[in-house]
Write a structure and sequence with these properties.
This protein is α/β, with parallel strands linked by helices and 155 residues long. The protein is 43% helix and 15% strand. It has eight helices and five strands; from the N terminus they run βαβααβαβαβααα. It has a five-stranded parallel β-sheet, with helices on both faces. The structure holds D-ribose.
C-alpha cells in the first residue's frame, strides 16, 4: 500500500518538513512547488494546496514555527481536522479519537526524531469511529465521515 502524504511548510518549518520527506521514503509525497522558491513563506499561502489533497483522501502535514498559525488557518475549512501535536501519543489520539486528517507540527520547537515518531503514529492509527464520530459530528459532519484513503472506509 502506498501512503500518500501532502505536506506544506513555511520558512520556519522547511527543515523539519524536508527531514520527514527524507525519513519516509516509502510514502508518496507532494507539496506546492512555490514553497521551494519563496522566502519568507507566509504560512497561510501553503494551506489551500494541502487542504485540496486532504479532501481527496491524502494524509496532510503542515509545519510552521509553532504550529499555531497553520492550525488556525487549516481549521477554517469544512471537513478539515488539523491537530497540533507535540508528542507521538497526541498524534495517535488525534487519529483515534478526533479523526484528524492533518498533522500539524511546530518546526522551531521539535526535534526531527520526535517529528518522525509523531508522523509514524499518525500514519499508523485508524479512526475508532463510534462515539467519537458522534462527537465530531456535533461540530463538523463532514469531518466525522471523512476517510483517509489508506484506512478502511468508515462504517
Ligand atoms: C514565522 O515567523 C512564524 O510566525 C510562523 O512560522 C508560525 O509559527 C506562526 O504561527
Amino acid at each position: 500500500m502506498i501512503l500518500r502524504v501532502t505536506i506544506g511548510w513555511d520558512h520556519a518549518g522547511m527543515d523539519l518538513a524536508n527531514g520527514l520527506i527524507q525519513g519516509f521514503p516509502g510514502a508518496f509525497w507532494n507539496y506546492d512547488d512555490q514553497s521551494l522558491i519563496k522566502d519568507p513563506i507566509n504560512y497561510p499561502d501553503t494551506v489551500p494546496f494541502v487542504v485540496q489533497h486532504v479532501y481527496q483522501g491524502w494524509v496532510g502535514v503542515l509545519i510552521c514555527g509553532t504550529g499555531i498559525g497553520m492550525s488556525m488557518a487549516a481549521n477554517r475549512y469544512p471537513g478539515i481536522g488539523a491537530a497540533l501535536c507535540t508528542d507521538p501519543h497526541m498524534a495517535e489520539m488525534a487519529r483515534a479519537h478526533n479523526n484528524a486528517n492533518i498533522l500539524v507540527l511546530p518546526g522551531r520547537l521539535m526535534s526531527q526524531s520526535v517529528a518522525t515518531a509523531c508522523l509514524s503514529a499518525f500514519l499508523n492509527t485508524p479512526f475508532q469511529q463510534g462515539r467519537h464520530a458522534n462527537r465530531i459530528a456535533q461540530f463538523d459532519p463532514i469531518l466525522a465521515h471523512h476517510a483517509l484513503y489508506h484506512f478502511p472506509p468508515a462504517e
